[in-house]
Specification:
Elements: H1 6-9, H2 15-18, E1 23-29, H3 39-48, H4 58-73, H5 93-96, E2 109-113, E3 117-123, E4 127-137, E5 143-153, H6 155-192
Antiparallel strand pairs: 1-5, 2-3, 3-4, 4-5
Length: 193
Amino acid sequence: MKLPDSAHFSRPWRIHDLTRDFRLEDVWALPTPGGPADFPRLIEMVASFGEARQRFSLVGLLFAIRETLGDVFGWDEHVDDPARPSLRERLPADLRDAHSTVTPAMGFAALYQTDDEWAAELINQTVHGVIHLGWVPDEGGGYRGQMAILVKPNGVLGHAYMTAITPFRYLIVYPRMLKGVGRKWLSYSGDRS
């Protein structure tokens, strides 16, 4: 379920200090009811996002098209650009030591992991993007996941790219991702009982 921006900004997340020059694209409540110790499982599930790798799924097809366009136009080539430094350079000492052992998919690089936060970034020719996961108390006394997407478009290309992918994100990628996370979560929860 899509949440208002306040669901992200009202929490005392460490990511706020690192992304003041980013815009918040989306905040989502994840269908992942659990207890205080379940957050690492959520990180693994979201970081792996298997459907992006399945070429015979709609999401997989979209990611394959994006990857091909990135190859053709050089959007994903690594460029050492001082104007686009990694957020790792902004990490305070305690977060540098809180590195994640989870390797995210789709070109993202993990930034840090705490008891209730995980962040990863992607830097390419179109955007500098961050996926942020939080583990928040729910109304029933348990916990659930919350995902935020933060973006800093790179110039005119980045703004055009974000505009072009918006309908695909809302109509295809997010609904399928949330459904997949919920299905995996329920399967995992059922296996534990």
